[in-house]
Amino acid sequence: MGDSGFMRAMQITRHGGPEVIEPVEVAVPAPRAGEALVKVSAVALNNTDLWTREGAYGHPGDPKAKSGWRGPIDFPRIQGADVAGRIVSVGTGAEESLVGRRVVVDPAIYDTEGPDANPVGLMGSERDGGYAEYVTAPVDRVHDMTESPLTDEQLATLPTAYGTALGMIERGRLREGETVLVSGASGGVGVALVQLARARGARVLAISSGSKLDAVREAGAHEVVDRAKDVVEQVRATAPEGVDVVLDVVAGVLLSEGLPLLREAGRWVVAGALDGYGVTFDVRRLYLHNAQVIGSAMHTPAHFDLLMDMARRGEVQPVIAATFRLDQAARAQEELSRRGHVGKIVLRPDMHS
């Protein structure tokens, strides 16, 4: 920070391709009452970064409208939901003892107080995020991870991908001994789903493709199904009794054709639409079998606390696919959009050329 009070950041001033991500020098934000100022060690990328930049979320009345996660973006905006770093100062009313602690920031902006609140906004979308040397966050959303065996890069991968994954698992009530099917298993959320479902003691079937199948198996999948072939048929062969829970970030045809894969009282949890949002299915397969289709966006504060406890104990081992300098944010997003990697892509504001 030096004496200048300025910091390097990457910001967007409009929707568009990677070219709209511009390097800027802006004032270091001052922590308001009840906030902490965090020096960013690592910030992980997510699909939401691409979709927020492109304005790909649509409106309830107009699915093609340019929009951020929960409505129009207030430009200019610094992206980046997933921050690990160190607290360098706090605003009034916050504990001074927090200064110097290594932390992970919960990026969700919640609708109410309390452990079961719903996320209605996101750091990097509805407020400035971590594609910068410093970021502010409410002290209530800052989790002390000083004791965690995970690296800063690994910690940065947790909030959105693992938070979303644990939210899906909790909302889908996945129990030990159940059979679970994970779609999009090589992506950030997908790998997290495989690891967390495995840690819970479920039998994990995962859908991925080509060269990534081995990596998904390594992440903990008991069986892998190749997306390039008939998925429903392969799942039937692997799990003839059906599956208890589907953890799905793909939707599209998989949900249309795959609903009959659920066992009685099965749960199909959807947290993304990588393969399309317009879905039709035979509703008889839903009500005759007491099945549930459950929407899941991110996590609650209670889910996030559970995740941080796991990370403090080193019960998850996030996979880092690649690390870029902060000023390479556009390149990093292009890499993410190509989907050639397994694991998470991370920016390091402290990495210099």
How do the helices and strands line up, and which of them pair or pack?
Elements lengths: L5 E7 L8 E7 L7 E10 L2 H8 L22 E2 L3 E9 L11 E4 L2 E3 L8 E4 L11 E5 L3 E3 L7 H5 L1 H14 L7 E4 L5 H12 L3 E6 L4 H6 L4 E4 L4 H8 L4 E6 L3 H7 L3 E9 L13 H4 L4 E4 L5 H12 L7 E6 L3 H10 L5 E5 L5
Parallel strand pairs: 11-12, 11-14, 12-13, 14-15, 15-16, 17-18
Antiparallel strand pairs: 1-2, 1-4, 3-5, 3-9, 3-18, 5-6, 6-10, 7-8
Characterization of the model:
This protein has 353 residues and is α/β, with parallel strands linked by helices. The protein has 2 domains: 6-161 and 299-348, Medium-chain alcohol dehydrogenases, catalytic domain (Quinone Oxidoreductase, Chain A, domain 1), CATH 3.90.180.10; 173-295, Rossmann fold, CATH 3.40.50. 24% of the residues lie in helices and 28% in strands. The protein contains 10 helices and 18 strands. The chain has helices at 47-54, 152-156, 158-171, 188-199, 213-218, 231-238, 252-258, 284-287, 301-312, 329-338, and strands at 6-12, 21-27, 35-44, 77-78, 82-90, 102-105, 108-110, 119-122, 134-138, 142-144, 179-182, 203-208, 223-226, 243-248, 262-270, 292-295, 320-325, 344-348. The strands form 4 sheets. Strands 3, 5, 6, 9, 10, 17 and 18 form a 7-stranded mixed β-sheet that branches. It has a 6-stranded parallel β-sheet with strand order 13-12-11-14-15-16, with helices on both faces. Strand 15 (262-270), helix 8 and strand 16 (292-295) form a beta-alpha-beta unit. The two termini are 18 Å apart. The relative contact order is 0.15.
